[in-house]
What we know:
This protein is of the alpha+beta class. It has helices at about 1-5, 10-15, 20-50, 110-130, and strands at about 60-70, 75-80, 85-90, 95-100. The protein folds into two domains: about 1-50; about 60-130. It is built from four helices and four strands, in the order αααββββα.
Amino acid sequence: MLASLLPASALAQASAEPLVPAMAIMQTVLALLAVVGVLLLAAHVLRRLNRGHGFGSSGPLRVVGGAMIGPRERIILVEVGDTWIVVGLVPSQIRCLHTLPKGETKAPGNGEKHFAQWLKQLTERRNEDG
């Protein structure tokens, strides 16, 4: 029905031109690449600025070891100066469980295993006492 209303030259011209010009597609792709590039650059700059502020930093606080005691519960041993602090972590809170003078770990590579054994011995001693 529409074909009968339009002249033949208009139909030929409409079918020859693409619906979306190639330049519009190219501009969209280039704009998308520019946005992704800016995001990657911003992430890189933020990572460089925050270096040294995480857990691996060489400040006064150092995580010596840790043990998972449940699916969402963890106990870690934190070194602050000449003191070790045993900290309990659960989703809703962080609690200091025990403080003790700084000690030596027996094997630097297996700190988590030794900490778990130490924690087990500590809890067994507490259960025997009380």
